[in-house]
Amino acid sequence: MFKAILLNKNDDGTTAATLSELDDAQLPAEGDVSVRVDYSTLNFKDGLAITGKSPVVRKWPMIPGIDGAGEVIASDHPDWKPGDLFILNGWGVGENHMGCLAGHAKLKGDWLIRRPAGMSARTAMAIGTAGYTAMLCATALQEQGVGKDSGEILVTGASGGVGSVAIAILSARGYKVVASTGKMQEAEYLKALGAAEVMDRAALSAPGKPLQKERWAGVVDSVGSHTLVNAVAQTRYGGVVAACGLAQGLDFPASVAPFILRAVRLIGIDSVMAPKAKRVAAWDALARELDEKKLGAITQEIGLAEALLKAPEILAGKVRGRLVVNVNAGWAARFEALGQ
User: Fold this and answer.
1) Is the pLDDT of residue 70 over 60?
2) SS3 of residue 242 by DSSP
């Protein structure tokens, strides 16, 4: 038996999220690697799944949790054996396949990567999909020729998971980072991560002109909608915008003007289905570059019960940095606190 957050669909179409005890027989048969999950995370997508605010879940019942780190228990996959340490990000886990907000999971070996030497499961999940995505964004800017001397880099959604880690990575690489946030009270926190300047997101979140004053050599955007449109409109000639999120919205009410008049490049960053080689490179870079002290400053540890309570908060933008879920900690007390 193991503990898990279990999602079921009510008759009226709403989502019921409960703390449950399950056994391995209830896990999906198509997984060829059985694992013990030590830590997971709570991401924006997990918040959508748990609250039912968006149709993230495609199969019912479902265990959410798009991230996981722990140890292999049993394997029918040639690359994995009991005792191996793994990281899992994405691949539809928590959407189409039962995820990692649970003590056990049954996953496909092709989805897993080996945890970098010396990295704990907790550290891996403090980074999680948010940090891994931030590294994909930083790498994309670099590969597209945006160097540390190219000019200012805008990071939107700066106090969130992706934004916080992106600031830490880019500033450590020598870039001048400007952080955009709706929480100006977090300015000192963002500057401690490496932001040279902090600006109010209100300057970017409303509809704006198709072409605006050029400022950004590069952008990491996790917000979408008008924020992304304005960021593109302010990007300098030949600049690069890495788009990876939709916190403000899925829409993109933009003009082609920045692309054809300023040669701006908009690069889509997908963390869910990224090929294994790109994943391994990102995690190796994270293990080398990410400052453990800065990572600690953006991380809060919670249990499964708290994950249920924090899910609406992460959607409302009330969570700073990263939420690491210790799936085995304080179960009885937290279960009782929720009245279950």
Assistant:
1) yes
2) strand
